[in-house]
Amino acid sequence: MTEYRLGVIGDPIDHSLSPQIHNLFAEQTNLKIDYQPYRVLSENLNSFVKDFFESGGDGLNVTLPHKIQCSQIATSTSPIVDLIGAANTLKSTKKSKDIFAESTDGNGLIQDLQEKSKIGSANILILGAGGSALSIIPSIADCLPKNILLDNRSQEKIQPLIERFNNLTINNSIIDNIDHFEDDIDIVINATSAGFSGAFNWYRDLNLSKKTFFYDLSYTKDNSKTPFLNWAIQYSDNYSDGFGMLINQAALSYELWTGIMPGTTINKSDLIND
Ligand code: NDP
């Protein structure tokens, strides 16, 4: 049986659940994989990626801080990587020297979120204007929400984000000033790292109600709530953390490497908590 040589690169990498997730996929789909975590420093990234694929590697996941650099190392890129300038998946085949870069974060989010809340025709507020906000906007736009609203602590980062999507053919509008937005906000997505050291708080009042669905891209490894969700429960009982996005983006990478889409019904307790 072919053995796929796979891995995840980042710095730090100890926290990564990707090896456990991909080993579960392999068991489930009856494939043999060797999936390793690699801590790679930025200055060694180019040579690491080149050596990994030249020595027969099949695929890599990419996590912080290497997503932008990996999109530049690749010799071919998907349309979404061209648009956002970042990649979370690299693939090569033993026959070709091509290194292909893909980003599965956005579609991973959509696969999870659409099982939990209706995205089409919704007013969706994204908090944050960093790398993860950038990576999810095109996939959200593809679902034709009514409006995508953006808010960020540093207001000056919002406009450049919107300008990047100027050529995106979407039938909905991206709104950068939510001060006078009076319609209901249906979904709030937290794409910030706020609350990592303490409680989450947003710097202004938002038009939220008990019908609003709250989705945090961050996740916990157990049943505790993230700081964002602890804040969100003052408004609504409808919420989710980003564990499902983690599983779904991993599944899309696995499919790219092996041609087989694994099942994504995985619970936190299925992974070994260290
Ligand atoms: P970036 O560093 O690129 O961006 C951080 C964002 O958080 C910025 O918008 C920043 O605002 C904001 N922020 C940071 N601290 C605060 C604060 N105290 N108050 C308000 N805003 C704050 O990070 P990423 O976009 O790459 O990642 C964001 C989160 O998404 C991370 O927690 C990451 O783990 C998670 N993620 C989850 C994935 C999954 O599979 N579930 C995949 C990818 C990311 P400002 O511009 O003002 O500094």
Protein described:
With 274 residues, this protein is α/β, with parallel strands linked by helices. The protein has 9 helices and 12 strands. Helix 6 links the parallel strand 7 and strand 8. Helix 1 packs across helix 9.
Helical content, roughly? Answer: 25-40%
How many beta strands in the DSSP annotation? 12
**Tell me about the biggest sheet?**
6 strands, mixed
Order of helices and strands: EHEHEHEHEEHEHEHEEEHEH
Give the percentage of residues in beta strands: 15-25%
Terminal CA distance reads: 31 Å
User: What is the average of the pLDDT values?
Assistant: 93
Low-confidence stretches: none
Structural class: alpha/beta
The distinct ligands, each listed once, are: NADPH dihydro-nicotinamide-adenine-dinucleotide phosphate
Assign an overall shape: globular
Number of helices: 9
Across the major sheet, the strand order is 2-1-3-5-6-4
Radius of gyration: 19 Å
Overview features:
274 residues, alpha/beta, six-stranded mixed beta sheet, six-stranded parallel beta sheet, 31% helix, binds NADPH dihydro-nicotinamide-adenine-dinucleotide phosphate
Summarize the structure.
The chain is an alpha/beta fold and 274 residues long. It has helices spanning 18-29, 45-54, 67-73, 79-84, 105-113, 131-142, 158-164, 227-232, 243-258, and strands at 3-10, 32-39, 59-62, 76-77, 89-91, 100-102, 123-127, 147-151, 173-175, 187-190, 213-216, 239-240.
